[in-house]
Amino acid sequence: MPYDPRIHHRRSIRLKGHDYTLPGAYFITLCTQGRQCLFGNVVKGKMQLNYLGHIAFNCWEAIPDHFPHIELDTFVIMPNHVHGILVITDTSVRAWHCHAPTREQFGKPVRGSIPTVIGSYKSVVSKSINVIWHTKGQSIWQRNFYEHISRDQKSLDDIRQYILDNPQRWADDLENPQHNPDDCEFLFDIPF
User: Fold this and answer.
1) Distance of alpha carbon 76 from alpha carbon 82, whole angstroms
2) Phi-psi region of 159 (alpha: psi -120 to 50; beta: other; left: phi over 0)
3) With contact defined as beta carbons under 8 Å apart, do 77 and 40 qualify?
4) CA 55 to chain centre
5) Which site from 127, 155, 176, 185 is most exposed, i.e. has the minimal number of CB atoms within 10 Å?
6) In angstroms, what CA-CA distances link 1 with 107, 121, 129, 152?
7) How far, rounded to the nearest angstrom, does the alpha carbon of residue 54 sit from its chain's CA centroid?
8) Which whole-number Å values give the CA distances from 35 to 77, 142, 161, in the listed order?
């Protein structure tokens, strides 16, 4: 079926009109497809990464290697999601865009923007896992991601604490598939 913008339009959940290349702290949450626990398990309030979890962890840590204007803040890889704070520090990323506001459009990534960084991260993790599982083109992620722009120090500190406490709250976390065991569609058969 050819592309038809009336049918294939994807509604953005990004903050309307915000330039996602602007310096600031961005709280990001990514969920695995079907919320399948691919990255390990929480044991006694601590996250225990499996091999796939180490891939997700190492790729997150490598973000500044590929996007030097990004600094990592607090983050955690959970069994089926990732929470992290990405900080855009370098204002020269805006120079790439002639100082005009940069608006993301589907299929037209904006160099250095938060959606482009997240898209790159999701892609490299999926490709690495596909190599292990001998699959091709299987995205392990749900479409899109949640983001929150931290506007002050208290908000940023609260988000940091939320991320740090996440493994301890896993039993009560709505992302925990134990709360919805019938909703599970597994991408891979991973024994835990």
Assistant:
1) 6
2) alpha
3) yes
4) 14
5) 185
6) 17, 29, 29, 46
7) 15
8) 13, 8, 23
Q: Helices 114-133 and 51-61 sit at what angle, rounded to 10 degrees?
A: 150
Nearest to 139 by CA among 188, 85, 66, 192: 188
For residue 176 the two structure tokens come to 């925990």
Pick from 14, 9, 34: nearest CA to 26:
14
Separation between Cα atoms, residue 44 and residue 52, nearest integer Å: 20
Q: Which amino acid is at 18?
A: H
**Cβ atoms within 10 Å of 82's Cβ, excluding its own:** 26
Distance from chain centroid for Cα 147: 9
Determine the residue type at 165: D
Cα separation, 117 vs 109, whole angstroms: 10
Q: What is the per-residue pLDDT across 91-141, written as a single tens digit (0 to 9) for each?
A: 565 444 444 445 555 556 788 999 999 999 999 999 999 999 888 888 899
Element (H, E) at 158: helix 153-165
**Average pLDDT for the chain:** 83
What pLDDT is attached to residue 14? 45
As separate numbers, helices (DSSP H) first and strands (DSSP E) second, the chain gives 5, 6
Instruction: Determine the Cα–Cα distance for residues 116 and 106; give it in Å rounded to an integer.
Output: 11
